[in-house]
Design brief:
- The chain has about 325 residues and is mainly alpha-helical.
- The chain is about 75% helix and about 5% strand.
- It has 17 helices and 4 strands.
- The strands form 2 sheets. A two-stranded antiparallel sheet has the order 1-2. Strands 3-4 form a two-stranded antiparallel ribbon.
- The radius of gyration is 20 Å and the shape is globular.
Amino acid sequence: MTVVGPFGLSVRDQALETDVQAGLAAVEEGLLEATKSDVPFITEAAQHLVRAGGKRFRPLLVMLAAQFGDPHTPRIVPSAVVVELTHLATLYHDDVMDEADVRRGVPSANARWGNSVAVLTGDFLFARASHILADLGPEAVRIQAEAFERLVTGQILETAGPRDGRDPVEHYLEVMAGKTGSLVAVSCRFGAMMSGAEESVVDILTQYGERLGLAFQLADDVLDVASDSHESGKTPGTDLREGIPTLPVLRLRELAARDGRPEDLDLVALLDSDLTDDARHAEALARLRVHPALEQARRDTIRYAEEARSTLAPLPECFAKAALQELCDAVVHRAG
């Protein structure tokens, strides 16, 4: 049993371990190659987050989904590079929007070089991903384009906020399905599709990825409140400071509106105040960490992870399926 990939995923089969490790190593080489430029400064900026590491969650899903067909077909690694490049590009843009100082334990690109360089570097990564996609065929281009549209739509909906009368939690889950679920779903779809798996298997794995991606994002929401910077790789409470309504905050507002408890209303008022003030931010973070709303967000995370697991039921029993199931458990564990 060898530990590979994010969360210490354990692979219990030597052949699967070999395939996954070789695939991820090839993806890493592909990422470095795809982020090279004739301009040294662009290379430095584009490889900034590549070299900072990361869980490589999406490439791992590509490799595992490919096990349901021929995992050695030559289009699998490039498709994994595409999804990771796309993900990395969104991180450059997200850090600008969030004014984040730290990403993956290193200074964010915007903190190091400024917002303009960070935005343009993200655009450069999108361009390189598109270049690779062109060699994977029109269907791959269409799938990626649809996912990217959903991703951007999710970001816009988050910025605009819920329309009048819309439940804020439902709105938020729709946003996260677009921002995160869409690309995780494509990771599973590309792996299965590029390997020649049956269409029914491709559909199952795509649905699994959608649900797992949402659970993964909700676990991130919990971590943003509950973890320290060493565990999460970014500054705790970043979303809280920027006034971005993550699930624990939305659950708090829901409880406050429903029950009207003075302590809940007081915490909501604190969250609505200027949390760029370090003392207020620290107080809000400490109080939210012990509030039942955080536990409710954890339960939401578990629910989506279990939905992802149940989606896999029709697939034949194999080591790859077991690994996908274990990822559901790992996401739950990550949320505490």
